[in-house]
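Methods, example record. To illustrate the input and output format used throughout this study, we show the complete record for ribonuclease H. The sequence lines were provided to the predictor; the line carrying structure tokens was produced by it.
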Amino acid sequence: MLHNQYMHDFNEKNNDEQGMSIEDGLQQEYTDFIEDVISKGYAERVPECQLEGVKGRFGSYPHQQLIWVLTRFRQEQVAVMGDIRQMFYQVKVASEDKDFLRFLWWPQGDTSQDPIEYRMTVHLFGAVSSPSCACFALRKTAEDNQGRFAKEVVETLLHNFYVDDCLKSTATEEEAITMIKDLMNICSKGGFQLTKWVSNSRVVIRAVDEIHRAKDWFELDLDRDDLPLERVLGLHWCVEKDVFQFKMIQRERPLTRRGLLSYLSSMYDPLGFIAPISLPGKILLQELCRRKCGWDSELPPDIQQRWTKWFRDLPKLSEFKVGRCIKPCQFKSPVKAQMHHFSDASENGYGAVSYLRLESGMDVHVAFLQGKARVTPLKQVTIPRLELTAAVLAVRMDNMLRAELQLSLESSIFWTDSTSF
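The corresponding predicted structure is encoded as:
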């Protein structure tokens, strides 16, 4: 197996050599990167006596789900975001596992020489195993320091990180400043450097050393400049207005089944903010599957007409914004909280949406939490059964939100207009 992989890698290296010989700039960039990895000890040459390698086994995925982290990020008024610098490179690879991370490289990037076999001593970017191993190390750091830091700091390390991204929201600016300092300290205990801080509070950012701020925030005039737009796990976060927004780039794509799928796949929406908008496009794609249209065949005229109409309305999404925080600033603890879930279905699709209802004194506030919309199966299903499926989806959303939101919920109320069950 290792011999076959070696030959595969050797052939790949020959292809790389041909490609880099065409672009001298690429060759220099490639060489500088690999030589830097080797010089820092992130990779080592494989000893002659260990070239045969060993077999291994599979593990699990200890990191948090993206949607869980985003949900917690929306809970309080003051939001902070940080990043662990070169997280994977800070985690050593066990000696018995290094042989699974071998690669071939020419000495000093000289492609006229025979390639040498190297292996990583730390986890590399791009390997499927790296996120799990790095997250395991981060969790171990939290567990090993439970007695040294406040419980909330340890819980944040365990539940508010998506791989190397930290997303946290607090009720006050003072809490946020303290949390940033404590998180940086606890991460350093595990050899991690938590940096690239961003916040919707200018007070919080001023309390962070400039070298630990995000790159675009180094020379920001916090008295006059607007806070820049940031990406939060793929979502666009307008930090100045503290809202999520959408930027739809309408690139020209062929009017084919493949082109339609490509565009739908580019509509990143993990919390279901625009589920009612994307669902009609998914229905069109399913119709093409039903008609067994080829991937690169031109769309039928009636589908083209429906697609064009749907496509023309998408620029309006740039005007659509959703508040990041689900709780108004005037709402102090304690508040009465309920979740309301609505579900419904039709012959084309079904879905559910969840809202949080907060009550503080005489004030009431309702916030969108999450939405899901799915096309119905190709195999015909009765409307009552689809409505029941939508209700089940709502219950699952409730279970997830109850587990992730740190709120004392009075009740969850489920709404459906079905009388069939």
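Annotations derived from this record:
DSSP finds eleven helices and 15 strands in the chain.
The longest helix spans residues 383-404.
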